[in-house]
Amino acid sequence: MLEMLEAMKTGDADVATAGLSEDLTTAIGTDAEEWWEGYDTSAKAFRAQLEVSGGLPIEMTDVRGYENDGMGWFEARGSVAVEGAAPAVVRMTGVLRREPDAWRVIQVHASAGIPNAELGMEGLPI
Which InterPro entries does the annotation name (predicted)? Predict the structure, then answer.
């Protein structure tokens, strides 16, 4: 997962998409429209975004991974800093599977933290 995150940061679409399993179910990004189902759709979207952006300005500082019997999962926290905008908190979770030659992502979800108050849920304990 660390290799895939670094590839997304540097814009290396080949390495980023190589980290996806052909059995990928869903990749969910931070934008409300970023809901891609299946390997072909997800890989195409990853590749297009990396080619246009030249790399995503992400810095994941807290990445943890776990595995059990050929399945793995991860959680990551960091920030995205687009030029001209304040850095935003980014969180990711995902599921990986050990395939014959590498660990590959079969589901991934990224989100940008939004304060509860912005969602009309003021006063909830955190």
Answer: NTF2-like_dom_sf, SnoaL-like
Structure tokens at 96: 């990986």
Q: Give the tens place of pLDDT for each residue, 25-80.
A: 999 999 989 999 999 999 999 999 999 999 999 999 899 999 999 999 999 999 99
- In whole angstroms, what is the distance from residue 90 CA to residue 58 CA? 8
pTM: 0.88
Strand pairing partners for 73?
Answer: 66, 95
Asked, for residue 67, whether it belongs to a domain, the answer is yes
Percent of the chain having pLDDT more than 90?
78
The total number of structural domains in the chain stands at 1
Alpha-carbon distances of 89 from 32, 34, 60, 109, rounded to whole Å: 16, 17, 10, 14
Residue span of the structural domain in which 54 resides = 2-114
User: Rounded distance, CA 24 to CA 12, Å?
Assistant: 19
Tell me the CATH number at 61.
3.10.450.50
> How far, in Å, CA of 26 to CA of 117, rounded?
29
